[in-house]
Amino acid sequence: MAATPNPQVSAAKSAQGFVYLPLIAGWLVPGAGHLLLGKWVRALLLAASILGMFAIGLAMGGKVYAHSGDILDMLGLAGDLGNGVLYFLSRTLGLGADSVQVTTADYGTRFIVVAGLLNVIAAVDAHNLRTGRKPL
Amino acid sequence: MFSPSHFTAVVLFALFASVVFGITMRETPNRMVRYGAYCFVLFVGSAIVLSWVMYFIAR
């Protein structure tokens, strides 16, 4: 007779190891958290969405926020930081506009910020899968 | 520089956001697809409705 899976045992099993690895990997590289958990279709879709949104934001001439004293810029920076490695790469390579000149560039700036926020949601989802809070 | 129309920008935004919402907010693939489609329709639909509201306010 097949044994029924015990939820407590599977939860304890899923809590082994470094539970924050999918969260950190997912933040640094979009989709990497789900890829580590073997959810490669979800990982590909998340990576395509977040990378696509970030790339389109840059192509639209969006601004990549840097540290400044302005409170609104700080909020934008917080959103941009959600992109992980993409943010640091774009800062290093000098991608993105310094100032917004046209309406589409303003939309591009929002695309970049929202890509970061969506990446944080995806990374937290990977963490929930890893801890067993959300079923695999 | 890539300069999409406002509507194209809305559709792109809705598409990417809906994919992430669908995957992260639901547990089974079937429900993910349904929730993603629901979010997409709401994003685009609300943009169209608000656009018409602003059109009539401006007249």
Considering the chains and any ligands shown, give keywords for the structure.
heterodimer, A: mainly alpha, 7 helices, elongated, B: 59 residues, mainly alpha, 85% helix
Describe, in short, the structure shown.
Chain A is an all-alpha fold and 136 residues long. Chain A contains seven helices and no strands.
Structural description of this entry:
The complex is a heterodimer of chains A (136) and B (59). Chain A is mainly alpha-helical. Chain A is 65% helix and 0% strand. Chain A has helices at 7-14, 21-28, 32-36, 40-59, 71-81, 85-92, 103-131. The two termini of chain A are 24 Å apart. The mean pLDDT of chain A is 90. In chain B, α1 (6-25) runs antiparallel to α2 (29-58). Chain B is built from 2 helices and no strands. Chain B has one domain (6-58).
Most residues in contact, chain pair and counts:
A-B, 26 and 16 residues
> What share of residues of chain A is helical?
55-70%
**Count of discrete domains of chain B:** 1
Number of helices of chain B: 2
**Spans of at least 5 consecutive residues with low confidence of chain A:** none
The oligomeric status of these chains comes to: heterodimer
- The radius of gyration computed from the alpha-carbon positions of chain A, rounded to a whole number of angstroms, is 18 Å
Main sheet specs of chain A: none
Which structural class do you get from the secondary structure elements of chain A? mainly alpha
| Helical content class of chain B | over 70%
Structural class of the secondary elements of chain B?
A: mainly alpha
Name the average pLDDT of chain A: 90
Mean pLDDT of chain B: 96
Low-confidence stretches of chain B: none
Q: How many beta strands in the DSSP annotation of chain B?
A: 0
The secondary-structure element order of chain A is: HHHHHHH
